[in-house]
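Try this one yourself first.
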């Protein structure tokens, strides 16, 4: 287990990323899984079914890839009980192969941990508190009153505002801005370009002139949250903007002031959530979803990509809106007919009246 091994493989994984070696038995124990086959083989990398080589592990979570399973050269494959009998190599049997893949990849490729300390080029206020086990990278600014807890990793060129709190084992990859008074819990991961706690879009109109409304709230982020690159989460106007535990947010997402997102909700890229909307737990939003403000979305709601939500959703389930993809000629015809719907409705109403009159005359 102690050393790293670089496999010669047709893989897109950079050669600089080296896996830690584990036996199949060790991996199975980590997953609390059952093995059919040789448990003593050493695994040195993870790969797709089609590209895997001896010494590598793969997984099958999509039935459409069963043909690739039959021809895989992997030393072991993560499969469920139903698929195990079709596995030509050592099978590691789990309930959820995709989740097992995530845990195995994390085991083989643990997050890089920097040596604790503060880079000489970082600018740290004397009144900031940084745990001795934390790392602060080059060019980072840490302002007065900020607290960075044990084993936190603050990458290059980040800005940590006044009185910010960053919990244990939280990682800011690079160029992340956490504005004043915001709080991050433990084991969070924020990717480059994330901005937490900028002013919400609060403006009041006074006889045609816009007056800025001071944004006095904070952003509070729970534990085990991941936020993708260039996502912005605005501070509340008065109430806090709150992201609960286990939330996953993709790149380029805009979350406005006073929003609350429930635990273990996942939000795909380019989604926009307007102010004061409350989203429940265990929701899933596809890409480019748009939500109006002051809505309530209950738990366990799934929104298809490009959905436009203008009213609250009170029942769990799958929802969608928008125009699905179709061939251009067909779409142009549909668009033309859409513009004619009002006129067609009038004509239909007139025909229905005429039909009713004819029925009355014949009665």
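Now uncover the answer:
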């Amino acid at each position: 287990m102690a050393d790293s091994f670089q496999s010669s493989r047709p893989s897109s994984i950079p050669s600089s990323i080296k896996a830690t070696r584990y036996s199949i038995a060790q991996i199975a124990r980590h997953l609390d899984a059952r093995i059919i086959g040789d448990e003593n083989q050493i695994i040195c990398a993870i790969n797709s079914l089609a590209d895997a080589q001896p010494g590598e592990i793969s997984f099958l979570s999509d039935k459409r890839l069963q043909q690739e399973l039959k021809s895989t050269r992997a030393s072991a494959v993560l499969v469920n009980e139903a698929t195990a009998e079709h596995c030509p190599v050592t099978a590691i049997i789990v309930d959820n192969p995709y989740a097992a893949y995530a845990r195995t990849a994390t085991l083989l490729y643990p997050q890089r941990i920097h040596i604790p300390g503060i880079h000489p080029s970082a600018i740290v206020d004397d009144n900031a508190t940084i745990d001795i086990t934390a790392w602060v990278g080059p060019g980072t600014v840490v302002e007065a009153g900020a607290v960075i807890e044990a084993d936190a990793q603050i990458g290059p060129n980040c800005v940590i505002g006044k009185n910010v709190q960053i919990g244990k084992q939280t990682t800011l990859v690079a160029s992340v801005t956490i504005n004043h008074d915001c709080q991050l819990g433990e084991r969070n991961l924020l990717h480059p370009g994330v901005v937490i706690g900028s002013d919400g879009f609060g403006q009041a109109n006074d006889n045609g002139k816009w007056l800025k409304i001071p944004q006095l709230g904070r952003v509070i982020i729970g534990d085990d949250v991941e936020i993708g690159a260039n996502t912005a989460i605005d501070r509340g106007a008065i109430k806090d903007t709150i992201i609960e535990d286990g939330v996953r947010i993709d790149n380029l997402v805009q979350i406005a002031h006073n929003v609350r997102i429930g635990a273990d909700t996942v939000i795909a890229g380019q989604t926009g959530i307007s102010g004061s909307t409350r989203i429940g737990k265990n929701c899933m939003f596809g890409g480019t979803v748009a939500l109006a403000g002051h809505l309530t979305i209950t738990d366990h709601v799934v929104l298809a990509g490009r959905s436009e939500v203008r009213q609250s959703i009170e029942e769990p389930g799958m929802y969608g809106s928008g125009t699905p993809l179709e061939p251009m000629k067909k779409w142009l015809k549909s668009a033309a007919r859409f513009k004619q719907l009002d006129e067609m409705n009038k004509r239909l109403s007139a025909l229905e009246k005429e039909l009713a009159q004819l029925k009355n005359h014949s009665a």
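Discussion: Residues 101 and 209 are 55 Å apart (CA to CA). The longest strand covers residues 56-59.
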